[in-house]
């Protein structure tokens, strides 16, 4: 998928957000629930930038809008994956600050990928002494903003992301936005009408001077009155513990992963975290000039590509050597033809299972020597190490994960596996659904999608015929 950022360096704000998104995606992109940035291409006009991502079929906003596509198990699994991605980001001392349904990408296997890091910030680079009114005003989409942001608090914490996750969970359970405020004042009124009244200590914890005109007595509505009677009780309990006025009293991502609602998927060994702080190469407290952001970004892109060229050359040589060895070893085996996406027939080596192999029982299979068997087993083992098989609790199948950690040999599997299952969502469901609603044309847009064919043809990408298939 291609995301085009129009006039990425129009002003300081746009240049800073473009720089942030690319830098944070390069740091977090190896997590299975965070979108992977494959490449960054500079446009010929030196203004636009093309970001190449792995392809995802739709997003959560489009799925919710379609109606009753999600069952309870799907909602639970989506929340679990979102919490897992948030835990990974927070472990690097970074907050996303713009989690919403249109920034949560989905595929037919109900796998979640969190995207759009243009508003993310490193907590290590936040200055408490310096006011940042522009950030407070435009952070996050209004319906998913935490009370401390709405009340102009300068004290950013990881709780802003946990509030957004609570709003997303409430939207999945309700089928529509939980707090669809029409203005900042109406937004805080809708929130205070539902959540428990904040105590004086909670109000002081926000370090805000703007709360007096909002925190007035009003008729309250309980969560149980808003949601259908069929809503699972553990889901309501998690919702109540996420949508808390005081950010210090909200559940953290790690605590939420142990909640009974997502406990069926909880597995600490599959929930990685970072043991270091993620810090941008440029200071983020003060906006730098457009030229500084542009020059630093292009410099880092060129540096990364220059380092990757020797690796790619070595990978090609290793793959060619592996293919030549396997073709020699498997010359006596009958191949199985499976259909590809284009309808072509592509031969694949047979699966080796010791329990199904009997000496002389299979016609057309020639016995091979013990040395050849060892070489064959070594080759198959090397190939198996380039991918990760994961069990999908939704479809009850074992699929190949898109997360491919580097192997000791340096070989990486870069071609996605064909998905044999029937698609759950329509591919065109995300048309016009990503990004902020009614986004003006030509402005900075975090919309995730594709570009037109004519624009795609103008990209400075080498033709497929020039690069032989590996």
From TrEMBL:
A Gene Ontology molecular function term of the record: ATP binding
Keywords: ATP-binding, Kinase, Nucleotide-binding, Serine/threonine-protein kinase, Transferase
Source taxon at top rank: Eukaryota
Domain Protein kinase, first and last residues per copy: 1-262
Name assigned to this protein: Mitogen-activated protein kinase 15
């Amino acid at each position: 998928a291609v995301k085009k950022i129009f006039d990425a360096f129009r002003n300081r704000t746009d240049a800073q957000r473009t720089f942030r998104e690319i830098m944070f995606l390069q740091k977090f992109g190896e997590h299975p629930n965070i979108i992977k940035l494959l490449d960054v291409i500079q446009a010929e006009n030196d203004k636009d930038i093309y970001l190449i991502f792995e392809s995802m079929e739709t997003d959560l906003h489009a799925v919710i809008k379609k109606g009753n596509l999600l069952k309870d198990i799907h909602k639970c699994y989506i929340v679990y994956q979102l919490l897992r991605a948030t835990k990974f980001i927070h472990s690097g001392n970074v907050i996303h600050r713009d989690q919403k349904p249109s920034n949560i990408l989905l595929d037919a296997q109900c796998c979640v990928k969190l995207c759009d890091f243009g508003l993310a910030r490193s907590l290590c680079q936040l200055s408490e002494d310096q006011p940042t009114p522009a950030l407070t005003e435009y952070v996050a989409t209004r319906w998913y903003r935490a009370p401390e942001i709405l009340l102009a608090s300068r004290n950013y914490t990881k709780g802003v992301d946990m509030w957004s996750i609570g709003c997303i969970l409430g939207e999945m359970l309700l089928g529509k936005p939980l707090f669809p405020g029409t203005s900042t004042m109406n937004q805080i009124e809708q929130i205070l009408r539902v959540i428990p009244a904040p105590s004086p200590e909670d109000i002081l914890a926000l370090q805000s001077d703007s709360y007096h005109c909002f925190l007035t007595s009003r008729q309250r509505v309980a969560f149980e009155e808003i949601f259908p009677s069929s809503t699972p009780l553990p889901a309501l309990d998690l919702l109540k513990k996420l949508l808390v006025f005081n950010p210090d009293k909200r559940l953290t991502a790690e605590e939420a992963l142990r909640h009974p609602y997502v406990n069926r998927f909880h597995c600490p060994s599959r929930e990685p975290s970072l043991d270091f702080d993620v810090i941008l190469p440029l200071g983020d407290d003060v906006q730098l000039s457009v030229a500084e952001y542009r020059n630093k970004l292009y410099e880092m892109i060129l540096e990364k590509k220059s380092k990757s060229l020797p690796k790619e050359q070595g990978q090609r040589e290793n793959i060619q050597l592996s293919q030549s060895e396997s073709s020699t070893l498997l010359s006596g085996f009958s191949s199985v033809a499976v259909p590809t996406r284009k309808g072509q027939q592509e031969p694949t080596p047979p699966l080796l299972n010791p329990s199904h192999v009997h000496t002389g029982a299979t016609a057309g299979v020639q016995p091979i020597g013990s040395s050849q068997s060892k070489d064959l087993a070594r080759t198959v083992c090397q190939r198996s190490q380039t991918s990760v098989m994961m069990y999908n609790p939704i479809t009850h199948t074992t699929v190949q994960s898109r997360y491919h950690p580097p192997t000791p040999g340096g070989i990486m599997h870069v071609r996605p596996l064909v998905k044999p299952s029937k698609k759950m969502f329509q591919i065109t469901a995300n048309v016009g659904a990503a990004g902020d609603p009614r986004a003006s044309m030509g402005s900075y847009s975090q919309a995730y999608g594709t570009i037109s064919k004519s624009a795609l043809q103008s990209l400075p990408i080498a033709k497929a015929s020039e690069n032989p298939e590996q």
